Amino acid sequence: MMNRKRVFWATTALVTGLLVAGAASAQSTGTVASEATDVDELVVTGVRGPREVGGAVAQTVDKTRSTITQELIARQNPGQTILQSLNLVPGLNFTNSDPYGNSGGNLRLRGFDGNRVGLAFDGVPLNDTGNYATYSNQQLDPELIERASVNQGTTDNDSPTAAAIGGIINYISSIPYEEAGVSTTASIGEFNYHRVFLRADTGAFGPWGTTAYATISNTRYDKFKGPGELEKSQFNARLYQNLGDGNFASISAHWNRNRNDFYNNFVNLAQFNAGGYLENDIACFRPAGVNGSVQNESTGSVRILSDGSSATGSCTNYHGLRINPSDTGNIRGNFSYGLTDSFRITIDPSFQYVMANGGGFTLVQERDDRLDRNSANNSTACLAGNNLNGGVDLNGDGDSCDNVGLYTPSNTNTRRYGVLASAIWDVTDNHRLTFSYTNDYGRHRQTGEATRFNQGSEPFEVYGGKEGWGDETRRVFGTDGSFYRSRDRFSEAILNQFSIDYRGRFFNDALTILVGARAPFFARNLNQFCYTQNGTSTVLCTTQPVATTLANGNVQFAGNTNQYVAPYSQRFEYDDILPSFQVGYDFGESSVYASYSEQIAVPRTDNLYTAFRNPTATTLQPIAFNDVEPEFTKNYEVGYRYTTSSVVASAAIFQNDYSNRVVSTLDNDPTSETFNTTIDRNIGEVSSYGAEGSIGWSVTDAISLYASATYLNAELQEDQIVGSFTCPAGGVTTPGANGFGCTPNQRSPLIIPTAGKKVVETPEWMATVRGDWLVTENLSVGLQAKWVDERFTTDVNDELVPSYTVVDFDARYDLTDVFGVKNAYVQVNVSNLFDEEYPINISSGTNALPIADVNPNAGVNSRSGSPRTFGIGAPRTAVITLGTRF
Fold first, then answer.
1. How many domains does the chain have?
2. Where does the UniProt annotation place the signal sequence (predicted)?
């Protein structure tokens, strides 16, 4: 029974401190070694096991970090994304798009969105190289995750990221077992959920005791609302060699394939409160082509809505087109070797592959100039007896008179190469220097090759006409043999980073000081192969002849008054030196720490693909690009920890100063170079401060409790300028109520009041709790809950979504005594036990309601509002799992 109790406490990694940490949960092999007490302390699992307290691991780093272990991960829904499993840690809020994790979700960490939070896998950075997005549905099978950690507000000094200003999440994959065997789990659940996971371990083999495993899993289920299904297959393998004396080498491979239908995330607050909203369409029937007449699929298609009713319109909301296919993989190496007793090197090389899109539907005129290259034929009028005089017959009815829907996925194909190398030198027993170098090189190809649909309005190939996928002959070709595409660009993201740490221990190791700095050198090479509408990022991908080349260097096409910037290449470079400082003092059962760090986020690819020339210039002009500046944060925190044999408690207060926050706004200034376009711009500073606390308590040998709370006050510091207007001639010159005047014929800013407003989608309070009970020698149960406060959806805080509480239940029964099969068990999970309905994936914006006056001067200028939209959290869902290892 004692052995099973020990397993119980392990399976409730939350007990007496879910928020655990050790060096093994750090960012990279180099950081693992650097945080170890001695440079030769590294062993086959990463580090010698940190001190356990009632099943939890005591935190040792002098900054805020939270960690969960495989035992807690295994008690969550089978196949669940690791970000959902981390949802109990302070400061982090993750809303899952469905109960099983295959649809992605939305991440917030201390008020920072997921694009500003780093995500790493065995030291490999996973954030998209272009927009820094994190894709929670593409993560490692949870059975293979040894532990996962969250650095709230900070990164590790060697973190290979260009955007993790809000913190970093890293998870570590398990190493192969020393004994040969097979592990398997099989799950069935609501919404036709089926999942199988299989792992085979070789055990130690060969003259050096090499170990390896290979795994495969498959998940399939229906959407919990509306038509459509989700499927995920994953393959993993790892080869591990223990080299002795803390040295090891490892190579791993990962492949993940998702084929998902999207949920409808366009529910507004009024619909939510009324309980009336639709999902994506069940079916869509396009009009049959008739030679000699015009078919307009924009208005003539018949839609079958999710409630069974019918309507006319386009097929853009048909569930078969609102899809999210992805194929991702990586190869990871980890190597650590002590050259001497005091000097160690580590090397983590990697390669990543990504192919993905979010579906796409575009209505195209059959006489579009991008197809026939002859503007004289650009007409929707059907010419009797001369129906193919120009244009391309897209729907096969023998004429070119129609408005036809095409499948136009925006494909993103990434090939990414990386290496992170470190040298750790123990100068003396109490003084250590760590040097690190990172190279991260990403090739980012973004295209949109259009294809037709089959008779059921389904794409023949989920990646459309992408080269190397499916039948490229299904591309839509123009009269000159070129193919229709919605975008065509190639980007390179290149990071070279150097870092250095000094760590010193004083007063019999009670006092620890760490001083570090990292110097990232980041470059983006942009190659735009389409024409760019002047002052925007909107493109025209065409082979039609240029009608006019203007004096300023821009071009125009026949029948089109817009100015376009011809295809171009451009390089952007960013660099900085980012210091960090940590200090901690260990009193025995208690310890205190303080830390300071600086982070940077360089602009995203989409922020930079904007080109402009002065439209009225009479001489050749250079191309001007968006001058978005990098974002910066300065993070301060002070913390306290208390650890005994039955209690693990921690508390921290923090402040984060955030400058150059980037948002998208509409410029409506007619004299501006970017008039009437949506641009990305810096809006100034955001200041946040707060407190986090957690406590884990082993009440008895059979009962444990855990609770945490987070308070966060995150505010915008400046009003936003959203445009400008011209004071009328002879207009008001006396100051308005705010003290400003309006000078006739002069430009005046239009401002919305955001100073002092709360950051969108950031709850002021969050709280979590979990309890575990060893009911009998064989049965253990767990109950956990998370409460999230109200959240604003707009920068001016004029719309608020309600708070919510989600409760989850799990129970596991050891079947060893039942079937005599060691390690066999059955587990039941019920997520959202009380069937709470709550908003997720909020599409935030500037204002939901009209603003009567955005003019700080005497004039009056109103601004219309737009209610924000969101998705709906998953309902109560039950699943049962049978697992064993033999």
1. 1
2. 1-26
